[in-house]
């Protein structure tokens, strides 16, 4: 596997460190790639905790294979190859991670977890972390692809690798990579019919509409303003609460009525507080509930919102308790 251009100073330094067996220096030279490799593993696996594990597995494999690095490829390319194959090995061993059947949606990806924005690379443009490729809808759509097809799609269309480079990383022929990419693009068009297929653009900040909607969403909870909550929701709202299966497309009123029937906003479940945040570069609300037997508000859930024309078009809720990596305080 080769990258164009002469051997860089960094790669020459890495070769020297690898040959010396200096594990501390090795860690220093590879650590700077941790965040972008973690995002890569998350795209492959849709689960933050699994992505952490596979990133660590990548560094362990890199250490054990350090003498195989000859500088024919850039260090970053070499690490991405190891990370991709670590994820593929993980998927091969997990019967619960088979591709999502066609026609099923995000709520059927029961292992889906949100990704904390603070763990994204600091330079998203350089690391190819476009907002569109970290949003939940994209991550779910990728889970419809068979693992090797998924790897081809991410390497080619997200990271922008040329076909020979991707083929070498996956031990495939260029023809196999080209065919797999065509099939993957077809699946992604079916899963994301309203989205463009060029995702290699820099991430951007939340819009004022998005910030305003999440603040109003929290305010409606804190005031138990059900009419206000209804006014924030589109009448073709897509809603899911993981890890429960089943995405619902519903009217705004029916959605709120369903939450009422389930006990929310009823006595004992009507004392809310919220924190505006972001995950997966999307607006989100950390919701805290104080029940009669509790001295304070405890973290209940995180609601990830997709805002279209000033209203919530999609809402994915996650149980947030026991997930310190979300960077939300456990109580308020």
UniProtKB/TrEMBL annotation:
Gene3D superfamilies: 1.10.1740.10, 3.10.450.50, Winged helix-like DNA-binding domain superfamily/Winged helix DNA-binding domain
RNA polymerase sigma-70 region domain ranges (all copies): 30-95
Coiled-coil blocks: none
Tagged with keyword Transit peptide: no
Keyword Transcription regulation applies: yes
Lineage top rank: taxon: Bacteria
Record key words, sorted: Sigma factor, Transcription, Transcription regulation
InterPro entries in UniProt: NTF2-like_dom_sf, RNA_pol_sigma-70-like, RNA_pol_sigma-70_dom, RNA_pol_sigma-G_actinobac, RNA_pol_sigma70_r2, RNA_pol_sigma70_r4_t2, RNA_pol_sigma_r2, RNA_pol_sigma_r3/r4-like
Pfam families referenced in this protein's UniProt entry, alphabetically: Sigma70_r2, Sigma70_r4_2
Limits of the RNA polymerase sigma factor 70 region 4 type domain: 138-186
Subunit structure: Interacts transiently with the RNA polymerase catalytic core formed by RpoA, RpoB, RpoC and RpoZ (2 alpha, 1 beta, 1 beta' and 1 omega subunit) to form the RNA polymerase holoenzyme that can initiate transcription.
NCBIfam families attached to this UniProt entry: PRK08241.1, sigma70-ECF, SigX5
Family recorded in the similarity comment: Belongs to the sigma-70 factor family. ECF subfamily.
Name of the protein: RNA polymerase subunit sigma-70
